[in-house]
Amino acid sequence: MDEESPSSRKSKEIEHKVYARVGLLGNPSDVYYGRTMSFSLANFWATVKLQPSHHLIITPHPTHDLVQFSGLDHLVNRLQSEGYYGGVRLLMSICKVFYNYCNENNIELSKENFTLSYDTNIPRQTGLSGSSAIVCAALNCLLDFYKVRHLVKVEIRPDLILSAEKELGIIAGLQDRVAQVYGGLVYMDFNKDHMEKLGHGVYTPMDTSLLPPLQLIYAENPSDSGKVHSTVQKRWLDGDEFIVSSMAEVADLALQGQTAILEKDYSKLADLMNRNFDLRRSMFGDDALGSLNIEMVEVARRVGAASKFTGSGGAVVVFCPDGPLQVKLLEDACKEAGFVIQPVKVVPSYLNEDDLKTLSG
Ligand SMILES: Nc1ncnc2c1ncn2[C@@H]1O[C@H](COP(=O)(O)OP(=O)(O)O)[C@@H](O)[C@H]1O
Ligand SMILES: O=C(O)[C@H]1O[C@H](OP(=O)(O)O)[C@H](O)[C@@H](O)[C@@H]1O
Ligand SMILES: [Mg+2]
């Protein structure tokens, strides 16, 4: 085989950055044929780098995929706080899903190999979609490396990213992946008819400047979306009436929220956000949500702000309807409680021309 010079390999290097996401309204109904409104969060991101190489190599991250420890106590502490998994399995899984999708759709892939590595500053397992940011960035690298971006429709990409996580037994929904493929603020309808007919939801990008200033609170608090969802998913599949009707109400909040945002009716938005969390709490129960997560929501509510989880737990999105003085009160309360608070920065849509050409309609 031809030996390439290091500089020629470097010039073929591909890197993609994908941001965290905030579920603003309607989550977790995306897992249950509902609706959500979510946006891509500029505060945190994951990057995946692809370099052409002789063999196909998945590089473990030096800290997120730690395999060398100072001793047994270090190993055990690490497993207790962060669990067994980092991002390697995510990268492997998206490679498999991508390869199978291309095969099934007669998309020819050249025989070249690559080395994939990743980095992320998205707080780990905090419901900010750290997992799908890594998968989405890797998919973007593969699409460009094999030059098949124009052959894989934008609407299908969130399904591929989700399949990569389902493959690993992680229960998750599409909202994260849609926000991360599209960028910006997106209203999503996962109605069963659409999903069955089209194979994906209906995604409507919205103007991010319609959003009021929002705050993000988070804690170092790994929560596993798969574990959090498992009991509720089982009850939903069994047709549990309370779960089915509550989930339908959660989905309806996103529909009402779309109108509220378009009309800049922010007091309505505040009510919808609060109701969203209250419904989650009644369905999942306090034990599954965890006291620290509940406290993050309550800290905000004690200063009169509206708050809810960004994802399945670990981070909270807050709206202070009374403005900067209320934000200051919230900052003080977070400091006292030991939570990190940051103003939300929203990422504008980042579909490029090739992506837009694949959009149907
Ligand atoms: N920051 C991270 N670095 C490395 N791997 C991560 C990170 N966050 C999540 N993962 C991987 O993704 C899996 C699922 O994470 P998940 O519970 O969905 O968290 P999140 O809310 O961040 O998406 C984890 O078990 C782990 O394998
Ligand atoms: O429970 C939720 O709101 C979300 O949980 C998962 O996101 P995560 O960031 O991993 O907590 C899931 O992937 C989403 O689809 C749910 O809406
Ligand atoms: Mg996740």
How would you describe this protein?
With 361 residues, the protein is α+β, with helices and mostly antiparallel strands. The chain is 46% helix and 19% strand. The protein has 13 helices and 10 strands. The strands form 2 sheets. Strands 1, 2, 3, 4, 5 and 6 form a 6-stranded mixed sheet that branches. Helix 8 (225-237) packs across helix 10 (266-289). The protein binds adenosine-5'-diphosphate, the ligand O=C(O)[C@H]1O[C@H](OP(=O)(O)O)[C@H](O)[C@@H](O)[C@@H]1O and magnesium ion (MG). Ligand LRWZ45AK is lined by residues 23, 27-28, 30-31, 127-129, 131, 172-173, 175-176, 225, 309, 311-312.
Number of strands: 10
Radius of gyration: 21 Å
Poorly predicted runs: none
What binds here, in terms of ligands, is: adenosine-5'-diphosphate, the ligand O=C(O)[C@H]1O[C@H](OP(=O)(O)O)[C@H](O)[C@@H](O)[C@@H]1O, magnesium ion
Topology of helices and strands:
Elements: H1 6-11, E1 14-25, E2 35-53, E3 57-58, H2 72-82, H3 88-104, E4 113-120, H4 130-145, H5 157-166, H6 175-182, E5 185-189, H7 192-198, E6 202-206, E7 215-218, H8 225-237, H9 241-262, H10 266-289, H11 291-302, E8 306-309, E9 315-319, H12 324-337, E10 340-343, H13 353-358
Parallel strand pairs: 3-4
Antiparallel strand pairs: 1-2, 2-4, 2-5, 5-6, 7-9, 7-10, 8-9
Helix pairs in contact: 3-4, 3-5, 4-5, 5-6, 8-10, 9-10, 10-11
